[in-house]
Specification:
The N and C termini lie far apart (33 Å). The protein is of the alpha/beta class. It has a single domain, classed as YbaK/aminoacyl-tRNA synthetase-associated domain (YbaK protein). Strands 4-2-3-5-8 form a 5-stranded mixed β-sheet. The protein has a 3-stranded antiparallel β-sheet with strand order 1-7-6. A hairpin with a 5-residue loop joins strand 2 (45-52) and strand 3. Helices cover 27% and strands 27% of the residues. The protein is built from 5 helices and 8 strands. The longest helix is centred in the C-terminal third of the chain and has 11 residues, at 143-153.
């Protein structure tokens, strides 16, 4: 069973991880997110769930919301096969998430531990605003705490310049 918003906040509480949660209407895009007028808009994360053309490798790219990700450049820099956005079915199968709720917390649902995470180096030692596996809220949490949770889970994680 995929993690819920309550599961995420319970996990953060149990690990004594500081966070701030803000409830808002459901959002499906960064533009909709920014229209919510939530606090800390400069900390909002953009999350892209992508896969290679053979559906063998899956990647979660998390960066500051105002950054542009060029998949062709990403492919060259990380020596991958051609890349495209993963389908909603892939998103549910790999991370237990629906469209609009993509988040690094979804990695905790990745039982195979085969989704590779790439985090924007600009988030190192900073707060990031990410969904708690639900697009009706945003959790502001220190990136190092998120990375610790994901590493404990067992997924590969890289900080990169974007």
């Amino acid at each position: 069973m995929p993690l819920t918003k309550k599961d995420i906040t319970d996990l953060l509480d149990s690990k004594k991880i500081e966070y701030e949660i803000v409830e808002h209407q459901p959002v499906y895009t960064i533009d909709e997110m920014l229209e919510c007028e939530i606090p800390h808009p400069d900390q909002i994360a953009k999350n892209l769930f992508i896969r290679d053309d053979k559906k063998r490798k899956y990647y979660l790219i998390t960066c500051l919301e105002d950054k542009k990700i060029n998949l062709k450049e990403f492919r060259k820099e990380h020596d991958t096969r051609p890349l495209t956005f993963a389908s909603e079915d892939d998103l549910m199968a790999k991370m237990g998430l629906y469209r609009g709720a993509v988040t690094p917390f979804g990695i905790l649902n990745n039982e195979e531990k085969d989704v590779i995470v790439f985090l924007d180096r600009d988030y190192e030692n900073k707060i990031m605003g990410i969904h708690p596996c639900d697009n009706t809220a945003t959790v502001f949490v220190n990136t190092r705490d998120v990375v610790k949770l994901l590493k404990e889970h067992g997924n590969e994680i890289h900080f990169i310049k974007m």
